[in-house]
Amino acid sequence: MTPLWLRLWHWTMAMLFTVLVVTGVVLTYSTSTFALMNYALADTLHQVLGIAFSVLFVVFLLVSGLTGYWRRYQRLWKGLLSRIVKFGGYVINGVPVKGNGGGETPPRIELSRGLLILVQHFLSIFSIAVLSPLLAITGLVLLFPEYAPETIAGLGGVWPFAIAHYWVGFLGALFLLFHAYIATIAGFRRMIKGR
Q1: Check whether domain 4-193 has CATH 3.40.30, yes or no
Q2: Of 16, 42, 44, whose CA–CA distance to 30 is shortest?
Q3: pTM value?
């Protein structure tokens, strides 16, 4: 059972991140002759929603810690990479008859579905442990550039954070697309009804 607080957090973060991606594209690629939306509005939305994203991420960490829900991710992580490799081998080579108890080999489409769900678990944990904190940290540095170091690796102090924010946001957008695709395979039921 997926708790209600997690489902509400999940959908809120998904909506926030979608708008952050759109406004990030506007802020990065707008020109004087073309913009998807008003640049000033995009800037304000990106800042306000970026702060909301960061705050909700911290709330998630606190609630997960206080309720013990973080153990679910710990259980998912245990042996995850070896299961991904194992299922990947099954998708490519088929299930060995010996390991299958002598029964019929599952169709490759079912094996690939299992593999994609395992990859989804890996990417979800990666987004929580790496992408979201990096987005929040680099975004806060860009929001308050006066606190950035003068230089980093010979570049102006803000530039490495801006480049990191761009690439982490790009990876996050790819994750969001993959996540939405996996949801169509696995079904939205769990994140709507909790089962």
Answers
A1: no
A2: 42
A3: 0.84
